[in-house]
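Hey all, quick one. A colleague (J.T.) asked me to put the zinc ion job into the tracker so the inputs and the structure tokens live in one place instead of scattered across chat threads. No bug as far as I know, just bookkeeping. Sequence used:
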Amino acid sequence: MIVRPRRLRENAVIRNMTAETRLSASMLVYPVFIREGHNIIEDIPAMPGQKRYSPDTFPRRLEELAKTGVGSVLLFGIPEHKDEVGSQAYAENGVAQQALRIGKKNFPEMMLIGDVCMCEYTSHGHCGVLKGETVDNDPTLKLLAKTAVSQAAAGADVIAPSDMMDGRVAAIRKALDEADMQDKIIFSYAVKYASAFYGPFREAAGSEPAFGDRCSYQMDPRNVREALKEAKLDVEEGADMIMLKPGLPYLDMLRAVKEQSPVPVGAYCVSGEYSMIKAAAANGWLDEERVICESAICLARGGADIIITYFAPELAKWIKEGKI
Ligand SMILES: [Zn+2]
């Protein structure tokens, strides 16, 4: 035999030297849930280990993250009051805006990414305003743009629209520019499939639709070319970075999107992926640490420049310890 591939697998030194994929803490984003109230840190039963914070306790979480080396967070606001038009999404003192202000003041070096959508804020739980039983695209754009401007003004460095309305990136870009915030980055959820893997998130954020589903705006899991079209449109409309979700079950799409994308691509390892690993580990069926590391490596290998994951603090710690 002339070629023996096992030579390069002989020991950890050679394996590390020749590894084709490397992770760094700088590519990790940690999603965090902010609820209204004071002095609250509460468990999310469907996502063991994850918590909801009130705006005043949010900086404590940021401090812990900064210590582990995670420098970016993605914020989801959970308002006390919901209505038909999701008015708390763009209220000056909305829950996300409060958290962004406190977060930016205490940790100016931390990158704060504001999730922009209506579903946590509407009484019907859909991602925009309704006309009958469907989400009305164009009137929704105005509210999304308003939400983006208000989050950016409160301290968001990056705006991440997750609603899947047509034309939202262009509408948000225009509104930010008109508000003299040309430097705010747009990180769009360009390819968001209508996935059952979001289940635990809906409990965490209280955003279950009151009727129907999100299939008329999120993408059909059967489609490939549609994802490429969505990704291309968002970039043309001004997205600085794009995201795909869920992560692991959609690695083929991550690779396909990455190959055509001129901008950085993020993958969101969603709540269902998190909770499956947690549940299996709690039962002793999986080695939690190894599965978390492997999942993150697979997302990076699949093309993710950025990984949005609830495991960000653990991953950052293990990266620092040289375990990944
Ligand atoms: Zn939504």
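Adding what we noticed when we looked at it: The pocket of zinc ion is lined by residues 117, 119, 127, 162-163 (CB under 6 Å). The mean pLDDT is 97.
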